[in-house]
Design brief:
One of its GO terms (molecular function) is isomerase activity. This protein has one domain. Helix content is 81%, strand content 0%. It is an all-alpha fold and 488 residues long.
Length: 488
């Protein structure tokens, strides 16, 4: 796992830097400088743009990775890359056109519950297009096994830009409308910078030759739109649907809780960038031995790392809420945070499962199952949100993701006879449960920052010691030997 470990480590560092900046924005700047209604509106807009991203990319970001290693001649490869650049326009042009023609009708529909949404439909559309083409250019460098700069742009750039805009808003150098326009500019610039870098790595040679497998490519792209939509819908449709059922300021409480829980997924997000092209290569080469090893190692290592992050978040969350402005309101998302944290930990358990499924010949069946599960999630949200508010949305997400992940694990086992689990996985999960029970109700009578520091230090040292002492993972042990000088 040399290239995986090397780039994953750098990607994790950059992703956590992005989450650190985003955490400052989410927990302190947005909550301090915007009203809860305004913050809820920003989250709603960005969530809707994220839901539209797979359509705007037209599935190209996955198609490029899956088929890139198939083409062996320069002409066929250039023709394939040319197609990848222009294919998203099939979706972009109609969506932008529809937004222009039916802007008022779309605005009225989305703003039934919250009028503030009505003024920012175009912002959502432009950001969705920018996000779609950003993913295309990121995939362009993934297949070159160069993911570090793309991770910086994906995780750090827009969050740093939002921080600058929030500071300008605080000092009244810009108003809310200019802030929203600034967000559009940040996401557009992010896409353009990614384009320049991608083309510097591999300059596109526009070649319009017919590809022999064009039918398979187009069919895969169409179906990947559904797959990508499933993934983003499972993450963001709850926020979008809440805009029609509850007051928009509650979306801010929900979004803060979800953002904190999302930190658990950072290692998976970082490792996924390199797992996708490697899994595609092993599948195309029919190297199932390497594929199984990658599957199991990625799952175990992700559970170990994500498990520690899960503990640090859940065990310190009550103290963290005390530090936030309007803490009583935002702490109402405690149940949301815990239940979504469990969801993220289950996601980590899958390892390279998604990379295997999206790059195999069985993606069609999985997509059908995914569509069914998304429909189930939408129905669950319609039932639970009116009854339980933001807690209902969290429950709907938990049930839908649990079913979806379980089906994916079962399907990979049925077709490839591979499971991500091992005895070390069971030991790790047991360790997480024990630590959760032992430390959740143990609070230091100090200032919240000092209390969190003390508890985090104790939990981390004990957790790392157990993982190292009983050699849960050879990869983790080697990293500890290299970076923790005091461990002999």
């Amino acid at each position: 796992m040399g290239i995986v470990a090397n780039q994953s480590f750098k990607n994790i560092i950059l992703t956590y830097l992005g989450f650190l900046i985003g955490g400052i924005n989410t927990l302190f700047l947005y909550t301090k400088f915007l009203s809860t209604q305004q913050y809820g509106m920003v989250n709603y807009m960005l969530s809707l743009a994220t839901v539209l991203t797979p359509l705007m990319a037209f599935g190209v970001h996955n198609t490029l990775v899956k088929f890139y290693s198939v083409f062996k001649t320069r002409v066929s490869l250039n023709s394939f890359l040319t197609l990848m650049l222009f294919l998203p326009l099939i979706a972009v042009i109609p969506v932008v056109g529809a937004t222009y023609v039916f802007n008022e009708s779309i605005s009225d529909f989305l703003a039934i519950k919250n009028e503030i949404i009505k003024n920012y439909i175009w912002h959502t559309c432009i950001i969705a297009v920018a996000l779609g083409y950003f993913e295309v250019f990121f995939a362009w460098i993934k297949v070159q096994m160069k993911t570090v700069f793309g991770t910086f742009m994906k995780e750090v750039f827009h969050r740093a830009g939002a921080m600058v805009l929030l500071i300008l808003l605080y000092f009244k150098l810009i108003d809310l409308d200019l802030f929203m326009n600034g967000l559009v500019a940040v996401y557009t610039l992010k896409m353009l910078v990614m384009k320049v870098y991608a083309f510097s790595v591999k300059w596109p040679v526009l070649t319009f030759k017919r590809l022999n497998n064009i039918s398979a490519i187009l069919k895969y792209s169409m179906l990947i739109i559904i797959a990508g939509s499933i993934a983003t819908v499972l993450l963001d449709v709850d926020k979008v649907m809440m805009g029609s059922y509850i007051n928009i300021e509650k979306i801010a409480y929900y979004s803060v809780a979800v953002y904190i829980a999302a930190v658990i997924a950072v290692p998976q997000r970082a490792m996924h960038q390199i797992l996708m092209p490697l899994s595609a290569k092993y599948l195309n080469d029919k190297d199932y031995g390497s594929l199984k090893e990658l599957y199991q190692k990625s799952s175990l290592n992700l559970v170990i790392v994500s498990g520690l992050i899960f503990l640090l978040i859940v065990l310190n969350i009550n103290q963290l809420y005390l530090l936030m402005p309007n803490s009583n309101a935002y702490s109402s998302g405690l149940f949301v945070l815990i239940i979504i944290s469990v969801v993220k930990l289950y996601d980590a358990l899958l390892g390279s499962n998604n990379a295997i499924l999206f790059n195999s010949d069985y993606y069609r069946v999985v997509l059908i199952l995914g569509v069914i599960l998304v429909l189930v999630m939408v129905v669950l949200n319609m039932v639970f949100i009116p009854m339980l508010g933001i807690n209902g949305a969290a429950m709907a997400t938990f049930i839908a993701v649990f079913l979806y992940n379980t089906v994916k694990i079962s399907f990979v086992y049925k077709k490839f006879k591979m499971l991500p689990f091992s005895k070390a996985t069971a030991k790790t999960l047991g360790l997480i449960v024990v630590f959760s029970v032992l430390f959740y109700f143990w609070e230091f009578p100090f200032h919240p920052i000092l209390a969190m520091t003390c508890k985090s230090f104790i939990v981390t040292v004990l957790y790392v010691f157990v993982v190292y002492r009983f050699n849960f993972s050879k990869d983790i042990t080697e990293v500890l030997k290299r970076y923790l000088r005091f461990v002999k």
